[in-house]
Design goal:
Elements lengths: L4 H4 L8 H23 L1 H13 L5 H21 L3 H18 L11 H10 L1 H15 L6 H12 L1
Helix pairs in contact: 2-3, 2-4, 2-7, 3-4, 4-5, 5-7
């Protein structure tokens, strides 16, 4: 049982409350975004167009798969269940979105500092930073993961 503890354990206390707030906010963002891409026809079409234009293979299948992953793992992240794994999956989705679509919004022929500024104007790098923090730190004090960690600690 103790070998699974590191998957669920995270810092507690008031100092970690911002971690919980970020986890819930970004989880709900991905849930809402994915939900709309799965169930709202206009969002489905935009997602399919984006994936097709990015040159991702099997765009119709991948559009549904990615949107479903955003929905599921966003919800899990929001409630704090399997937070590290969910954040990792959403990080990968954000990285692919950044590399295939987002980074092409940065103008060519600019200096490195300006390029960096443009990069941080894109939403994906900030999602990636927040999600990376959750992968490393865990879910925070108010989560299902924390309850599981406490029970695993008591049982071992």
């Amino acid at each position: 049982m103790s070998r699974y503890l590191s998957l669920f354990n995270s810092p507690g206390g008031v100092a970690s409350l911002p971690l919980t707030l970020m986890r819930v906010a970004i989880g709900l963002f991905f849930f809402a975004s994915g939900f709309n891409k799965v169930f709202v026809p206009a969002s489905q079409m935009m997602m399919l167009e984006t994936i097709t234009e990015a040159g991702i293979p099997f765009p119709a299948l991948m559009a549904v798969f990615v949107a479903s992953c955003e929905t599921l793992f966003g919800l899990l992240l929001a409630v704090g269940l399997l937070s590290r794994f969910s954040a990792l999956v959403l990080t990968i989705i954000s990285l692919v979105a950044l590399v295939t679509v987002g980074i092409h919004h940065i103008p060519a022929g600019i200096n490195m500092l300006t390029w960096y500024s443009w990069l941080l104007y894109l939403p994906e790098p900030l999602y990636i930073l927040i999600l990376a923090m959750i992968v490393v730190q865990g879910s925070g004090p108010l989560s299902i993961d924390r309850i599981i960690a406490q029970r695993l600690t008591r049982s071992s």
